[in-house]
């Protein structure tokens, strides 16, 4: 019943309504925090397509099936992850939520020059390119360019495993500047 002096609803009704609004807001916040989807870790990984003119090459067709089903990152096994359609050709990912992504058949990285600092891992020459939160390592001494993007938290295990697979699968070629 309205207050006879002001026409406002009774104070009890206002308090009950305010409590219900606060309870609803708390419930929504709790559900949002506990059920929050942080990149749909269990679903397919969405990747942006990149120019990969050699993705359908015989070298990529040989390399991709040779890649391990699981990578080791600081003692933690990272299984292969499904890539969302339309999946880029000659691309594989491992782990979640911070995935490691390998792309085969890319064009020459613009950072590759005669003075680029290269690193050799298991006989494979890599060009590291640092980025925010992750580094991309380019294989520069095989018939195709391969990029491995690794989160900064992953350690060196994945790079070692991929190097071993590349060394066993693709023969080295002279650097192309």
UniProtKB/TrEMBL annotation:
InterPro entries in the cross-refs: DUF3515
Domain of life of the native organism: Bacteria
Pfam families according to UniProt: DUF3515
Transmembrane annotation, as ranges: 12-33
Keyword terms, alphabetized: Membrane, Transmembrane, Transmembrane helix
Membrane keyword on record: yes
Protein's name according to its UniProt entry: DUF3515 domain-containing protein
Organism: Amycolatopsis endophytica
